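As promised in the previous annual report, we have extended the structural survey to additional targets. Below is the entry for leucine--tRNA ligase.
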Amino acid sequence: MTDEDPTLEQLRFLHKCIAKVTEEIEATRFNTGISAMMEFINVAYKWKKRPKVIIEAFVLLLAPYAPHLAEELWFRLGHSKSLAYEPFPKVDPAYLEESTILLPVQINGKTRGTIQVEKTCSEEDAFQLASKDEKLSKYLDGMSIKKRIFVPGKIMNVILDRQHVKAAVQ
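The corresponding C-alpha coordinate record, generated without further manual editing, is:
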Protein backbone atom coordinates (compact mmCIF):
# COMPACT_ATOMS: atom_id res chain seq x y z
CA MET A 1 0.00 0.00 0.00
CA THR A 2 1.31 3.46 -0.89
CA ASP A 3 0.39 7.08 -0.36
CA GLU A 4 0.77 7.74 -4.10
CA ASP A 5 -2.07 9.00 -6.24
CA PRO A 6 -4.09 6.27 -7.96
CA THR A 7 -3.80 5.71 -11.70
CA LEU A 8 -6.70 6.33 -14.06
CA GLU A 9 -7.12 2.57 -14.46
CA GLN A 10 -7.32 2.08 -10.69
CA LEU A 11 -9.89 4.85 -10.34
CA ARG A 12 -11.96 3.33 -13.16
CA PHE A 13 -12.04 -0.09 -11.50
CA LEU A 14 -12.88 1.44 -8.12
CA HIS A 15 -15.74 3.56 -9.46
CA LYS A 16 -17.17 0.66 -11.44
CA CYS A 17 -17.15 -1.31 -8.21
CA ILE A 18 -18.76 1.56 -6.28
CA ALA A 19 -21.48 1.89 -8.93
CA LYS A 20 -22.24 -1.83 -8.96
CA VAL A 21 -22.21 -2.27 -5.16
CA THR A 22 -24.40 0.81 -4.66
CA GLU A 23 -26.89 -0.42 -7.27
CA GLU A 24 -27.00 -3.90 -5.77
CA ILE A 25 -27.46 -2.66 -2.19
CA GLU A 26 -30.34 -0.42 -3.28
CA ALA A 27 -31.99 -3.36 -5.06
CA THR A 28 -31.23 -5.77 -2.16
CA ARG A 29 -29.20 -8.06 -4.42
CA PHE A 30 -26.38 -8.55 -1.96
CA ASN A 31 -24.80 -11.59 -3.59
CA THR A 32 -24.03 -9.68 -6.81
CA GLY A 33 -22.63 -6.79 -4.77
CA ILE A 34 -20.22 -9.24 -3.15
CA SER A 35 -19.37 -10.56 -6.59
CA ALA A 36 -18.47 -7.03 -7.76
CA MET A 37 -16.17 -6.60 -4.78
CA MET A 38 -14.52 -9.97 -5.49
CA GLU A 39 -13.88 -8.88 -9.10
CA PHE A 40 -12.32 -5.66 -7.83
CA ILE A 41 -10.04 -7.55 -5.42
CA ASN A 42 -8.92 -9.90 -8.21
CA VAL A 43 -7.89 -6.90 -10.30
CA ALA A 44 -6.28 -5.09 -7.35
CA TYR A 45 -4.08 -8.12 -6.56
CA LYS A 46 -2.36 -7.59 -9.91
CA TRP A 47 -1.41 -3.97 -9.21
CA LYS A 48 2.21 -3.39 -8.20
CA LYS A 49 1.14 -0.44 -6.00
CA ARG A 50 -2.14 -0.10 -4.15
CA PRO A 51 -2.95 3.52 -3.24
CA LYS A 52 -4.32 4.01 0.27
CA VAL A 53 -7.27 6.11 -0.96
CA ILE A 54 -8.42 3.21 -3.16
CA ILE A 55 -8.14 0.72 -0.29
CA GLU A 56 -10.00 3.07 2.09
CA ALA A 57 -12.87 3.43 -0.36
CA PHE A 58 -13.02 -0.33 -0.79
CA VAL A 59 -13.14 -0.88 2.99
CA LEU A 60 -16.08 1.55 3.17
CA LEU A 61 -17.82 -0.50 0.44
CA LEU A 62 -17.18 -3.66 2.41
CA ALA A 63 -18.61 -2.26 5.68
CA PRO A 64 -22.32 -3.04 5.06
CA TYR A 65 -21.44 -6.65 4.22
CA ALA A 66 -18.76 -7.37 6.85
CA PRO A 67 -18.88 -4.58 9.45
CA HIS A 68 -16.50 -6.09 12.00
CA LEU A 69 -13.86 -6.97 9.42
CA ALA A 70 -14.20 -3.55 7.77
CA GLU A 71 -13.84 -1.82 11.14
CA GLU A 72 -10.64 -3.76 11.88
CA LEU A 73 -9.22 -2.94 8.43
CA TRP A 74 -10.15 0.72 8.92
CA PHE A 75 -8.13 0.91 12.14
CA ARG A 76 -5.20 -0.91 10.47
CA LEU A 77 -5.27 1.76 7.77
CA GLY A 78 -4.36 4.24 10.51
CA HIS A 79 -7.73 5.74 11.42
CA SER A 80 -8.49 6.35 15.06
CA LYS A 81 -12.26 6.80 14.75
CA SER A 82 -14.87 4.33 13.59
CA LEU A 83 -15.76 4.09 9.92
CA ALA A 84 -19.42 4.17 10.93
CA TYR A 85 -19.30 7.95 10.70
CA GLU A 86 -17.65 8.02 7.28
CA PRO A 87 -19.80 8.66 4.20
CA PHE A 88 -20.41 5.78 1.83
CA PRO A 89 -18.29 6.19 -1.34
CA LYS A 90 -19.96 8.04 -4.21
CA VAL A 91 -19.44 7.08 -7.81
CA ASP A 92 -17.88 9.63 -10.14
CA PRO A 93 -19.47 9.10 -13.58
CA ALA A 94 -16.37 10.52 -15.29
CA TYR A 95 -14.49 7.34 -14.36
CA LEU A 96 -17.17 5.04 -15.72
CA GLU A 97 -16.58 6.08 -19.32
CA GLU A 98 -14.04 4.07 -21.24
CA SER A 99 -11.49 5.98 -23.29
CA THR A 100 -10.98 3.10 -25.72
CA ILE A 101 -13.36 1.17 -27.93
CA LEU A 102 -13.28 -2.01 -29.96
CA LEU A 103 -13.45 -0.92 -33.61
CA PRO A 104 -14.65 -3.48 -36.18
CA VAL A 105 -12.51 -3.63 -39.33
CA GLN A 106 -13.96 -4.77 -42.63
CA ILE A 107 -12.02 -5.77 -45.72
CA ASN A 108 -14.15 -5.39 -48.85
CA GLY A 109 -17.30 -5.25 -46.73
CA LYS A 110 -16.62 -8.39 -44.67
CA THR A 111 -15.73 -8.04 -41.01
CA ARG A 112 -12.30 -9.60 -40.59
CA GLY A 113 -11.46 -8.50 -37.06
CA THR A 114 -11.42 -5.74 -34.46
CA ILE A 115 -8.82 -3.38 -33.05
CA GLN A 116 -8.64 -1.55 -29.73
CA VAL A 117 -8.46 2.22 -30.37
CA GLU A 118 -8.93 5.48 -28.50
CA LYS A 119 -12.40 7.00 -28.92
CA THR A 120 -10.80 10.03 -30.58
CA CYS A 121 -8.62 7.93 -32.90
CA SER A 122 -8.06 9.33 -36.41
CA GLU A 123 -8.57 7.33 -39.60
CA GLU A 124 -4.83 7.14 -40.21
CA ASP A 125 -4.10 5.90 -36.67
CA ALA A 126 -6.85 3.28 -36.94
CA PHE A 127 -5.51 2.10 -40.29
CA GLN A 128 -1.97 1.85 -38.92
CA LEU A 129 -3.20 -0.27 -36.01
CA ALA A 130 -5.22 -2.47 -38.37
CA SER A 131 -2.27 -3.01 -40.69
CA LYS A 132 -0.10 -4.05 -37.71
CA ASP A 133 -2.72 -6.44 -36.35
CA GLU A 134 -1.69 -10.06 -37.00
CA LYS A 135 -5.18 -11.18 -38.02
CA LEU A 136 -5.87 -8.21 -40.32
CA SER A 137 -2.44 -7.71 -41.86
CA LYS A 138 -2.67 -10.91 -43.90
CA TYR A 139 -5.55 -9.36 -45.85
CA LEU A 140 -3.71 -6.06 -46.41
CA ASP A 141 -0.10 -7.07 -47.05
CA GLY A 142 0.90 -6.47 -50.65
CA MET A 143 -2.57 -5.29 -51.67
CA SER A 144 -3.37 -1.93 -53.21
CA ILE A 145 -6.07 -0.03 -51.44
CA LYS A 146 -8.76 1.56 -53.54
CA LYS A 147 -10.61 3.33 -50.73
CA ARG A 148 -10.91 3.57 -46.95
CA ILE A 149 -14.22 4.27 -45.28
CA PHE A 150 -13.94 5.34 -41.66
CA VAL A 151 -16.79 6.22 -39.32
CA PRO A 152 -15.16 7.45 -36.09
CA GLY A 153 -16.03 5.24 -33.15
CA LYS A 154 -18.10 2.87 -35.32
CA ILE A 155 -16.24 1.05 -38.10
CA MET A 156 -13.41 1.02 -40.62
CA ASN A 157 -13.84 -0.55 -44.06
CA VAL A 158 -10.88 -1.02 -46.38
CA ILE A 159 -11.77 -1.52 -50.03
CA LEU A 160 -9.03 -3.28 -51.97
CA ASP A 161 -8.43 -2.80 -55.69
CA ARG A 162 -10.36 -5.72 -57.27
CA GLN A 163 -7.89 -6.28 -60.11
CA HIS A 164 -5.05 -6.53 -57.64
CA VAL A 165 -7.07 -8.92 -55.46
CA LYS A 166 -7.84 -11.22 -58.43
CA ALA A 167 -4.17 -11.29 -59.43
CA ALA A 168 -3.16 -12.13 -55.86
CA VAL A 169 -5.70 -14.98 -55.66
CA GLN A 170 -4.52 -16.61 -58.90
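The chain has two domains: 8-95, 100-169. The helical segments are 8-26, 30-44, 52-62, 67-76, 123-132, 134-140, 162-169. These points will be discussed at the next consortium meeting with the crystallography subgroup.
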